[in-house]
Write a structure and sequence with these properties.
The complex is a heterodimer of chains A (161) and B (245).
Chain A: H1 4-29, H2 31-34, H3 40-45, E1 59-66, E2 72-73, E3 79-85, E4 90-96, E5 108-117, E6 120-128, H4 137-144, H5 151-157
Parallel strand pairs in A: 4-6
Antiparallel strand pairs in A: 1-3, 1-5, 2-3, 3-4, 5-6
Chain B: H1 11-43, H2 57-84, H3 87-118, H4 127-146, H5 152-165, H6 169-179, H7 199-231, H8 236-244
The chains are: A alpha+beta (161), B mainly alpha (245).
Chain lengths: 161, 245
């Protein structure tokens, strides 16, 4: 025979286990819907077990690394296009607007827009993603060989975009 | 093991224990807060990518960690109150809720202020941001539920159950950046590998985290004392205490 305390204990633990299980099952079922963005390989190869590919004209977010040397700017307007990569496939993003300060080649970004053709997205919003590493400029230069140039001086260094 | 804890379940002993601890904890919290924040905000080097904007980490990360830490403390107290029916644990759980809610609000607001210049947006519905917002709603739910019944006991019990059940959200917040694609970056220090933050920036951050923790304990002592006096106002020892003044 259980004492009243043991009964309360088992009741609380039971409620917690059942709810925990329910939430875990729910999150598992919603797995792909909770992702904020597609990666380029998910976009090209399809998502999940069923390899569902987004259709042309669908609104979606794409997240990946900006390919070095792929940023092309229109000299007369704010139009810009660049390529995104994660593990293999490359997706092109076109955008008309001001890019965030952290936007650089080799930087992770998330773009929201409409799929124009299976590998091109017309973005309406571009967000910069940054990683979890924080270090002073001198350390970054020694460790990674990254020369930090503040965005305000970057234009001079690169000859102006 | 819990022998030294048992006397503290008695309201009168706990009241005097809190009164003894409060000034020390508060002094330590203010000292650590000043040290960690001034060091972090003014004397650390800028970040190689984010420049000076990254300094908001010294407010954002401590408040975010302690929003979850306070929730675990609240849930443990609520669990103790539900199962062993310790009324002081009940009061402690309810005393912790507003503290945690404010920490969560600070974490969300500083996160937004950081997101705007760095990511380019105030808010995005990714898994980390959304689950932290749910944590704020859980805190507000606990506070609201405890006051929603005309019988204070019933309200406290319902609030405790919500606090215990809401614990499910904590692993979701912590692992959200690993389980799903998020705009929020991964963990820098709450992981088993070496922290991916330079030592010159890590130390003030750790001091600030400790400061937020000690501040939580100090505020808990203060709020718990009030709660004990309110709940025990008809007891002789409280009347004697009031008569002293």
């Amino acid at each position: 025979m259980l004492s009243r305390r043991q009964k309360r204990l088992s009741a609380v633990v039971l409620v917690l286990t059942l709810l925990g299980g329910a939430v875990a099952a729910m999150l598992y079922a919603l797995q792909q819907n909770i992702d904020l963005f597609y990666t380029p390989s998910q976009l090209v190869e399809g998502l999940g077990k069923d390899k569902i590919k987004p259709v042309v004209g669908q609104r979606l977010r794409i997240g990946g690394m900006v390919v070095e040397g792929s940023v092309k700017r229109d000299p007369n307007s704010l139009k810009v296009s660049f390529d995104l990569i994660d593990t293999g496939p490359i997706v092109t993003v076109t955008y008309n607007g001001i890019l965030p300060d952290l936007f650089r080649e080799g930087q992770g970004i998330v773009a929201q827009g409409v799929l124009l053709d299976p590998v091109t997205i017309a973005a309406s919003e571009v967000l910069a993603k940054h990683d979890e590493e924080y270090m002073p400029p001198e350390v970054a230069e020694a460790l990674k060989g990254i020369r930090h140039v503040p965005p305000s001086q970057q234009q001079k260094a690169d000859g102006g975009y | 093991m819990f022998k030294w804890l048992h006397p503290l379940a008695k309201p009168e002993t706990l009241y005097h224990f809190c009164r003894l601890c409060y000034p020390w904890l508060m002094a330590a919290a203010l000292l650590l807060l000043a040290l960690g924040n001034i060091w972090g905000l003014a004397f650390t080097p800028p970040d190689y990518q984010q420049g000076d904007s990254y300094r908001i980490i010294h407010l954002h990360v401590p408040s975010a960690i302690m929003s979850m830490g306070t929730y675990s403390a609240m849930a443990i107290a609520a669990f103790t109150a539900l199962v062993w029916q310790v009324k002081t644990a009940q009061w402690a759980a309810l005393a912790l809720a507003p503290i945690g809610a404010v920490y969560t609000a600070i974490a969300l607001l500083t996160g937004m202020a950081w997101g705007k210049p760095m990511w380019g947006t105030w808010w995005v519905w990714d898994a980390r941001l959304t689950s932290e917002l749910i944590l704020l709603f859980l805190y507000l739910g606990v506070i609201a539920l405890s006051g929603a019944f005309s019988d204070r006991q019933t309200g406290a019990k319902a609030a405790s159950l919500l606090a215990v059940v809401g614990v499910i959200n904590l692993p979701i917040i912590h692992f959200s950046v690993e389980w799903w694609n998020t705009l929020h970056q991964g963990a820098s220090i709450t992981k088993f590998a070496r922290p991916s933050i330079d030592a010159s920036m890590l130390w003030p951050l750790l001091i600030s985290i400790l400061a937020f923790k000690v501040l939580m304990l100090a505020l808990l002592c203060l709020r718990l004392r009030t709660a004990i006096l309110v709940n025990e106002q008809h007891r002789p020892w409280v009347k004697a205490l009031a008569g002293e003044r």
